[in-house]
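Worked example 2:
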Amino acid sequence: MVAMSLGTGIDSRRRRRSDDPPAPARPVAPALIAAPRLTGAGRIGGEVTLDPGRWSGVPAPTWSLQWQRNRADIPGAVAPSFALSPEADRAQLRCRVTARNVRGEAVVYSEEITIAYEAPAAKGSLTDAVYIHNSGDQILNAFPEFTGGALTFSVTGEGVAIDPVTGLLTIRTDALASGIAVVVTATNSGGTATSSFRVTVAAAAEPEVTEPVMTEAPALVGGGVIGAPVTLDPGVWSGKPAPALAFQWRRDGVDIPGATAAAYTPGAADDRTALTCAVTASNAGGSSVAVTAPRGVTYAAPTAGAGVPDQTLTQATGVKTIDAGAIFTGSGLSWSIPSGPTGVTIDKGLISIATDTLRAGVSVTLRASNSGGSVDDTFRLTVVEAAPVASGVALPDQSFVKGSGAKSFGVAAGFTGTNIVYSIVTPVTGVSIDASTGVVSVSIAALLSPTTLTV
């Protein structure tokens, strides 16, 4: 028999009512459910993006990122996306994900990827090339044939080298070659690409040779004036190869030593000569000579300046000279007097005028001439008598007796000069003088007191 007591009471444990708030969850540290994942090709110039994965934990964890290059943190690279610049070439890239909550933290890493440039590609622009034997090294730029960054180059093919940085091909032409295969390879961190073409080095064709032929005659350009250059138009010549031209100036058909330029300045030795120039055209086919038409050489024609002024000279005063060289300008001058009286001459530009003959406004024409022409100048010449002068001979006083008839005496001895005309300065009654002879006549019919007679 068992004894037991029955009754009602309250359980010592409090029972949860349906309207009570839920009890707080117990914190749980972060745990990885799905691993982080990178998206993007990993090519320089693009970007890589991280999917941080899925995480559990109470409370829900927060997470942070840190990108790494070759497992070293990249300063400031904490965003979900990372841009790939050239310095990342060939590096290993990954991202660290750190999840945290109140219970702790967990760290995981994404997979690593290798960063590279886009692989190069060939455009197919290299074409077969033909070069002439012994024409020197030929340069061909292969760089534009390829796309891609940070390219390096290599080449295969006999007699061909390439600069690995610039892609410049150097093709030798010192040996004949027929259709040598040349393969250019461009490489970067993303891969390689090739482009090929063929090179032929052929013997040079024998050049065509034809002798020089003048198709347009040479000619002289210039006036042929001494001191002024005369230039040569060498004419037009045909021939293969193009002929070389040589020049020789000639004076009256005779070579002028050293005159072999394309211009010549005539000098005094060329005055009144014929100037020509011989043009010699030469090439491998032969030579040919053509001579210009002659060009007469002269001085520039003389010119006259202000001219010789009219001359008034005194008779019997000797020879008067005038320098005509100061009147005319020009070189190589000769002088003449084409019209004028006797006694007027010119020698080496010096005019001489004799004064022994009286002249009354006689015209004198001077002429200066050279090979270029002549110029005249005219002046008038007058030669006048010299004024009479007292000779210094004392004329004796004269006394006469009244009624002794007319008396006369000469006074010409008291003067020197030609064609003298005599007169009495102060007339005296009964006294006269012959104007041409200088004979004084005195009538003594009347007495004369002492009187001074001025002739």
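Residues 424 and 453 are 7 Å apart (CA to CA). The chain has a mean pLDDT of 89.
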